[in-house]
Structures are given as structure tokens and as C-alpha cells.
Amino acid sequence: MRFFLALLLPVSTFSFALGLTQPLMLFERLYFLEDRPTLIEMISSLWLEGDSALAGVVALFSVAFPALKIVLIHVAVLTGGKTRSLALLSMVSKWSMLDVMLVALVLFAAKTSGLAAAAILPGLWFYAAATLTTAVAASLCARS
User: Fold this and answer.
1) Which of 9, 51, 57, 92 lies at 20 to 30 Å from 142 by C-alpha?
2) DSSP secondary structure letter of residue 28
3) Is 0.70 surpassed by the pTM of this model?
4) Could you please report the per-residue DSSP string of 75-130?
């Protein structure tokens, strides 16, 4: 079990970093305009356009909670689960799939609006991999 945690933690950490910095989706508008935003660019764009509440919600559920979850798993593994990190981890874990659902809703909205064609890029796959590996690591951590 420790071996799987030793594999999952670096994979989830690096996948999360790549998921934040790599393009998530390709939006094609009017056949010649393309956007390839990263999650960080989406949040900063929302903030700069005056949608600070929405930027805060997206940042909280798509960046802060997953990052906190990864940090808590690292702390729980390093301390042997003898700290409050396991209790906090179970509380944060309840929000673990909300971040992927949020990105999926954006993709769905773009595809169904008829104004843009959207395609999934590697950033979304890295982000999903980070979410899944973090969930498995949290489950393994809670068992040990």
C-alpha cells in the first residue's frame, strides 16, 4: 500500500500542476479564431473582466480545494496519519469531483451554444488524472 502511495502522490502532484498550466480546451469561433485557455488563464480572465465572484468560486473549487487535498495527503503519509490531516482530508474529499464537473460544464456550454466548436486538450486529461489519482491516494491513506 505504501508503494502505491509513493507512486500516486508524485503523479497526482505533477498532473495537477500540468492540468493548471496546460491548455484545457480548444475553442474555434468563426472558423479562424482559436482560443486555447489554461485554467489559470480562465480564472485571471474572469477576474480582469470584473467577474470576481465567479473567478473566486472557480479558483476555490478548481485550484484551492484540490491543492489542499494533495497537501493533506502528503502530510498524512509523512506523519503516518497521526495528525488532524486525515480529518481535514475527509472533509476536503467531499468536494473532489466538483472541479472536474465544473470544467465539463464549461465544455458543454461551449458546445451547445452553437457559437463555438470545442475540443478537449491535454490539460483537461492531466487535470482529470490528478483528480482520480488524488482520490485513490486519499482512499489508500484513510485505510492505512
Assistant:
1) 57
2) E
3) yes
4) HHHHHTT-STHHHHHHHHHTTTTHHHHHHHHHHHHHHHHSS-EEEE-HHHHHHHHH
